[in-house]
Amino acid sequence: MKKAVIFLMMLFALGAACFADEINGKVQAVDINANTIIISGIKISAQHARLENEADMPIILSAITVGDFLDVEGTFTGNGQMMAMKIEKDYPGYDKIKGKIDKIDYNTREMIIAGVKIKVSQDAWLEGPHDMIFQFAQFVPSSYVECKGRWTGPLEFNTTKVEMD
Q1: Fold of the 22-93 domain
Q2: Dihedral sign for Cα atoms in the order 98, 100, 102, 105
Q3: Of the candidates 131, 129, 130, 121, which has an alpha carbon nearest to the alpha carbon of residue 161?
Q4: Which of 16-30, 86-100, 129-143 has the lowest mean pLDDT?
Q5: The Cα angle at residue 97 between residues 150 and 113, in degrees rounded to 5
Q6: Is this model's pTM higher than 0.70 or not?
């Protein structure tokens, strides 16, 4: 019985690692007392997260400041909210959001992930399963995608690349 429980826990952890939600972006606010960080309007709970610097060394929340570029892995818990598992200070790069499509509007080429409006440009690179070129109309709600581009405001993201996981 113990072995079965351990096996199921390992399987769950592996599944969670494969489909962890993610965001990359600049910190807008840090609240040490509430253990939260804000990136582009997304409130991130850092209470149970592992925090690391650019060299993958452990840090504390007070080492993160407004303007820092972060890579956050966790789980979206609602619109504009995330429970972080890992928060890593990183060198500035592309912004990213990764998660499950909640809603999609084929006319405006917009999708919603955890309350974030993703605007998909006409010339965006769209990639489906097995790295196949995809059409926007092939994405459906509940698809798990990674979007690369730029945060344009609170809970708004313009993407130039969408990959289905």
Answers
A1: OB fold (Dihydrolipoamide Acetyltransferase, E2P) (2.40.50)
A2: positive
A3: 121
A4: 16-30
A5: 110
A6: yes
